[in-house]
Amino acid sequence: MQHEKSMEFLQIAMKYFPQAKEELEKAGIQLDPEALQPLLSLFTSVMQEAYDLGKADAEKATK
Fold it and tell me: Which of 41, 35, 31 has the alpha carbon at shortest distance from 9?
């Protein structure tokens, strides 16, 4: 289940990647593919934690 969610999170990240890259370039930050992997890993960790928090809140609300 967690792997499936990680893949969904990566799909979301890639959807917004062009916009993020454009904003970074406007700020003078160049993003190369090697630098992207740690950022995507961080993104999936943040998204997993947010997902778990939302799931826990939903479970509390249904009790």
Answer: 41
Contact 21, 27 (CB under 8 A): no
H or E element that contains 7: helix 2-26
In tens, the pLDDT along 15-59 reads 988 898 899 899 998 877 787 888 888 888 898 999 999 999 999
Residues 6+ apart with CB under 8 A from 40: 10, 13
Q: Which residues contact 30 (CB under 8 A, 6 or more apart)?
A: 24
* 8-state DSSP, 39: H
Give CA torsion, residues 22, 23, 28, 29, to 10 deg: -80
